[in-house]
Amino acid sequence: MKTLVLGASLKTHRFSHKAVQKLVAYEHEVVAYGLKEGEISGITIDTELEQYSDIHTITLYLNATRQSAFYDYIISLQPKRVIFNPGTENPEFYQLLGNNNIDHEVACTLVLLASNQYEPKKSKEPVNG
Q: Residue 34's pLDDT band (boundaries 50, 70, 90)?
């Protein structure tokens, strides 16, 4: 389950930085995009938008004003869900995502990881006897 951290920062006190560290620690496949080149826990921060494949989750660390420049890009990646971390809430974008069959969640990635709720719920398969 690959996650794109959008708005990754090299500043260690930033939540986006901590999210990359925790995702790696929890053994998730991670790619990151940010304004400055660098590395967090072995993950290179890309400074150009890549057409990543198989992105399951995009976790946003950009405020609503900055997100509009990324709408088309995010939708083009066709993730299964987008997580809006505290401070990134954006009803306009929720609507666009819904129109493109992409789920969204208003939550904190760090809390989801710490509380074992990051993984999507598995649908129960009927058991045939």
A: very high
pLDDT in tens, 69-104: 999 999 999 999 999 999 999 999 999 999 999 999
Residue 49 gets the label, from left (phi > 0), alpha (psi -120 to 50) or beta, of beta
What are the tokens at 100?
């493109």
Query: Tell me, what CATH number does 31's domain have?
Result: 3.40.50.720
Q: How far apart are CA 41 and CA 20, in angstroms?
A: 7
Question: Alpha carbon of 60 to those of 6, 37, 115, 126: distances in Å?
Answer: 5, 18, 19, 35
- Structure pTM? 0.92
